Every structure is written in structure tokens, then in C-alpha cells.
């Protein structure tokens, strides 16, 4: 029996149309030089055309670069390494968690290794004046809130993270801490950032020295370190 082979058709783009639906089932055949050149030109034009998702991402990338340039121009009172670390802290936050602590109540723990002299977390809260801080402290006592999370930035400004803050407020005091607090200035605004003093392992608790002023009424320290002072103040 002799079967008539169907005539090969060409598609609108000039490429050969496969009758069986698969080029491998039709054996080896040559492609004309004209068709090959046309195919290469189409492929080259497609490669030079930017993909659709890049056009969507470009504004986001431009916004990120603009944000970094804005931070660079507004960063004062600190070295370039502080700017770099603050950028890293802003766009790539450390993995941290809070859970029960053997020091006191809740504590903050590292979920990833943290190298020495790295920004761990920013202490976030409401910036208030000393007068407001005194009023809130009395109100918190009347409401039965045992712990108030206030951090002094300078003589005039205090950050209150009692009802509006982040995980940084759970960091406990230690007389032999693995972190320390530092005040940096970004966009003419002072910020408190927690730095690592040494390498911190996974599941290790984040601690720093509260440096409370010396007072007659002592607050007992439960850090349990070898050089524990016995009191926070």
C-alpha cells in the first residue's frame, strides 16, 4: 500500500508545521537557510525585549535604591559602617523570637547565628518627653502594669514601648551581656539600636546592660552571670 504523504505546511511565522504534532516523530529534515535566518532574527528580537515581570519589578528596585540613597544623605553623627548595618537591618531583619526566659518572665532569643558587632534589632516605641513619661509611669502603676518598657534616648527624649513597640522590649538585663545599646541619628531623628558584642549562637538569649542610675531602692538582678552585681541599679 502506498500512502500519500501529506504536504508540509508552514505556519504564519514561516516555521514548518508538524502534522503529527511532534517534530521528533517525523525524523530528520533540513531547515532552509531563509527559514533559519528568519527564526534567528525572531529569537534575537525576543531576547532583546525585556521580560514583562522585569518591567513590574523595576519601580520596586528604583524605590529601594532611592530609599538607600535617602538614608545615605540623611545619616549623620555615625560612621559609614553604621549606615550599611542600618540598611541591612531595615531590608533584612534578623530572625528572632520571644519565649520564656530563666532570667525574668519573657526574653528575646536568636533563631540564627549572629556575628559580633552586628545590628540585632532596633528599639521601637513612641518618642515622648520626660513629663509625659512620668505621667505614664504613674498611670501604668494604677492600671496594674508591673513592667514599663521605657528607654531614655537623651535628656529630653524617652522611647516608650510599653503598649507600642516590637520584640526589642523583651530583652532582659544581664551584668555580662552579649549585646549593647547605641544611639544613632537617621533623618535627624535619634534611634536606639541593639548591637552584638560577641558571636551569638542559635537559641541564645539576647541581653544587654540596662545601666539604671544608682538609687536607694534596689531592684534585684537575676541574670545569674559570674560577675553579677546583684542589683540592676
From TrEMBL:
Q: Name one GO biological process term.
A: methylation
The record's section on CDD domains has: SET_SETD1
Q: Which residues form the SET domain?
A: 94-211
Q: Where in the cell is it found?
A: Nucleus
Molecular function as annotated in GO: histone H3K4 methyltransferase activity; RNA binding
The record, for InterPro entries, names:
COMPASS_Set1_N-SET, Post-SET_dom, Set1-like, SET_dom, SET_dom_sf, SET_SETD1A/B
Query: Where does the source fall among the domains of life?
Result: Eukaryota
Tell me, what's a Pfam family for it?
N-SET
Listed under GO cellular component are:
Set1C/COMPASS complex
Q: Which PROSITE patterns match?
A: POST_SET, SET
Which UniProt keywords are given for this protein, alphabetically ordered?
Chromatin regulator, Methyltransferase, Nucleus, RNA-binding, S-adenosyl-L-methionine, Transcription, Transcription regulation, Transferase
Protein name, as recorded: SET1B methyltransferase
What range(s) does the Post-SET domain occupy?
217-233
Which stretch is the leader sequence?
Answer: none
Amino acid at each position: 500500500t502506498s500512502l500519500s504523504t501529506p504536504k508540509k505546511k508552514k505556519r504564519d511565522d514561516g516555521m514548518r508545521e508538524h502534522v503529527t504534532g511532534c517534530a521528533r516523530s517525523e525524523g530528520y529534515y533540513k531547515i532552509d537557510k531563509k527559514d533559519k535566518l528568519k527564526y534567528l532574527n525572531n529569537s534575537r528580537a525576543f531576547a532583546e525585549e525585556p521580560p514583562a515581570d522585569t518591567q513590574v519589578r523595576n519601580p520596586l528596585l528604583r524605590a529601594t535604591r532611592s530609599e538607600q540613597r535617602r538614608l545615605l544623605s540623611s545619616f549623620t553623627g555615625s560612621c559609614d559602617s553604621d549606615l550599611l548595618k542600618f540598611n541591612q537591618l531595615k531590608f533584612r531583619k534578623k530572625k528572632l523570637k520571644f519565649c520564656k526566659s530563666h532570667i525574668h518572665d519573657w526574653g528575646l532569643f536568636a533563631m540564627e547565628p549572629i556575628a559580633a558587632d552586628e545590628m540585632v534589632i532596633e528599639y521601637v516605641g513612641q518618642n515622648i518627653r520626660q513629663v509625659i513619661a512620668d505621667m505614664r509611669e504613674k498611670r501604668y502603676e494604677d492600671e496594674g502594669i508591673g513592667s514599663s518598657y521605657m528607654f531614655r534616648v537623651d535628656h529630653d527624649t524617652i522611647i516608650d514601648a510599653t503598649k507600642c513597640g516590637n520584640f526589642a522590649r523583651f530583652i532582659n538585663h544581664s551584668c555580662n551581656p552579649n549585646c549593647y545599646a547605641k544611639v544613632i541619628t537617621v533623618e535627624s531623628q535619634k534611634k536606639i539600636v541593639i548591637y552584638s558584642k560577641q558571636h551569638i549562637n542559635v537559641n541564645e538569649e539576647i541581653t544587654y546592660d540596662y545601666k539604671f542610675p544608682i538609687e536607694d531602692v534596689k531592684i534585684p538582678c537575676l541574670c545569674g552571670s559570674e560577675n553579677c552585681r546583684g542589683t540592676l541599679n
